[in-house]
């Protein structure tokens, strides 16, 4: 779980938001494909785009924007034991490799395999397999100091250091994740569809299981559609070294006369049992075709999370009146959370390509309000070559219990975290993408994006040496991806 893919997405607790973002990417991708046809088949575009809003989460990053099944090569697999007149047809296979890097910090490599198939003319199946690895160093939450700092590793075995004036980073950040998603869509009639999906993700200290389902009805001669979806996720957290007790102090081996004495004291600060988190998601949405070239989509989502949401590897510095750290405490977050979000999108076909513009507003009872504005513009150079620009702006307020540090003599608050992902921040993304199609329908895409994460001053009163140190360090990242579909 170690910091996860947090830097790729601003808020550490935005799992359901990520899922909905993925759905949006699919929705966008579905419509993008139709730019060449200028929405000649409007009803089909509408159906694909709207249904993607509540489909199962498929991928954190897009593989290929294409959704045109008719152009995909098809491989047939007969299923004579089920129905002689039906057969499972593989309609599309997509693969992608993604590389993410924050200089001197996290590096991630991700491989994605996505398969789409149809069974008869009313059933569609989609499955995705994802494998990624993360290595590098992650901020542990402690405030920088003018002198070198020493920290005990989460396992209790060994220490790591932060140099003078630098943001403390835990250099043991390493994880591998395997994720599998599946989704079955059934067309019940000319106006109704339902879907059922599952989710499984496993990494060293985190396991996630989930199911989701949804339904869609179109009307107004197929120009309008509404949808309803829900999801349930059950996560098991088993941190390295055990789960720190709330506000437990970080212990140091040098303060004890023997290893056994240190181990005994260390174990008292830990709960070795696994922790549970449950997530309930509900969303409703609509899609409206405005004319031959433009459509709008809207979505409202509500999430309730219950269980362990503290990051077991994050700490907060306790400082004295000189701004010098006198100790470190493991953070403590609430065990419930309510989140709501509203998402609006408009998308249209222009003379030169396809453009979309979206806005998302999210709020939760932890105190975060966030705004996201995003746009893509795709230009079709030729029938088989396109280029795309991507711009994204994100801004959020801090959670109510965010503290960059805690005064040593003050009474401890009920909750507290120095995780910059929960603080006030803005983020920018600029990306370009090129794609081309070879004879026979094989497609390649290349994406490069620059991401900038800018934490803001949250108003903590700096004393002593903290007034001269950078508490809110900007983070830059590069994202590169190669996709292949046939």
Automatic annotation (TrEMBL):
Organism per entry: Shewanella woodyi (strain ATCC 51908 / MS32)
Bias (Low complexity) ranges: 8-22
Protein name, entry field: DUF3570 domain-containing protein
UniProt biased composition (Polar residues): 136-155
Pfam family, one: DUF3570
InterPro entries named among the record's database cross-references: DUF3570
Stretch list, region Disordered: 1-29, 136-161
């Amino acid at each position: 779980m170690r910091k996860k893919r947090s830097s790729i997405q601003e808020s550490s607790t935005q799992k359901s938001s990520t899922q909905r973002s993925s759905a949006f990417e699919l929705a966008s991708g579905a419509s993008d494909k139709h730019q060449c046809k200028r929405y000649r088949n409007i009803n089909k575009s509408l159906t694909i785009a709207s249904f993607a809003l509540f489909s199962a989460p498929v991928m954190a990053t897009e593989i290929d924007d294409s959704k045109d099944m008719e152009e995909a090569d098809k491989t047939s697999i007969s299923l004579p034991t089920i129905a002689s007149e039906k057969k499972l047809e593989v309609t599309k296979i997509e693969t992608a490799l993604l590389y993410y890097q924050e200089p001197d910090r996290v590096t991630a490599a991700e491989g994605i395999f996505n398969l789409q198939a149809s069974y008869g003319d009313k059933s569609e199946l989609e499955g995705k397999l994802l494998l990624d690895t993360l290595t590098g160093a992650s901020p542990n939450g402690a405030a920088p100091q003018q002198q070198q700092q020493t920290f005990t590793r989460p396992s209790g075995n060994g220490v790591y250091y932060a140099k003078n004036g630098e943001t403390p980073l835990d250099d043991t950040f390493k994880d591998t994740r395997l994720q599998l998603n599946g989704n079955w869509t059934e067309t019940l009639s000319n106006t109704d569809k339902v879907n059922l999906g599952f989710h499984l993700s496993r990494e060293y200290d985190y396991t996630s299981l989930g199911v989701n389902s949804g339904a869609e009805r179109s009307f107004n001669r197929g120009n309008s559609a509404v949808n309803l979806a829900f999801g349930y996720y059950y996560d098991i957290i088993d941190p390295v070294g055990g789960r720190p007790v709330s506000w437990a102090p970080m212990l140091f081996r040098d303060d004890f006369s023997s290893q056994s004495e240190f181990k005994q004291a260390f174990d008292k600060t830990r709960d070795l049992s696994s922790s549970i988190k449950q997530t309930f998601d509900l969303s409703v949405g609509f899609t409206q075709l405005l004319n031959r070239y433009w459509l709008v989509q809207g979505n409202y989502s509500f999430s309730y999370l219950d269980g362990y949401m503290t990051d077991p590897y994050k700490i907060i510095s306790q400082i004295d009146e000189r701004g010098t750290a006198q100790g470190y405490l493991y953070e403590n977050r609430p065990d419930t959370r309510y989140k709501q979000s509203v998402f609006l999108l408009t998308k249209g076909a222009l003379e030169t390509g396809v453009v979309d513009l979206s806005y998302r507003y999210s709020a939760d009872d932890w105190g975060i309000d966030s705004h996201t504005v995003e746009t893509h513009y795709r230009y079709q150079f030729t029938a088989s070559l396109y280029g795309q620009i991507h711009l994204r702006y994100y801004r959020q307020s801090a959670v109510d219990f965010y503290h960059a540090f805690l005064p040593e003599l003050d009474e401890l608050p009920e909750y507290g975290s120095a995780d910059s992902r929960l603080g006030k921040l803005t983020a920018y993304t600029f990306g370009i993408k090129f794609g081309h199609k070879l004879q026979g329908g094989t497609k390649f895409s290349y994406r490069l994006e620059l991401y900038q994460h800018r934490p803001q001053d949250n108003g903590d009163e700096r004393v002593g040496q903290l007034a001269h140190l950078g508490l809110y360090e900007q983070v830059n990242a590069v994202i590169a991806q190669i996709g292949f579909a046939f």
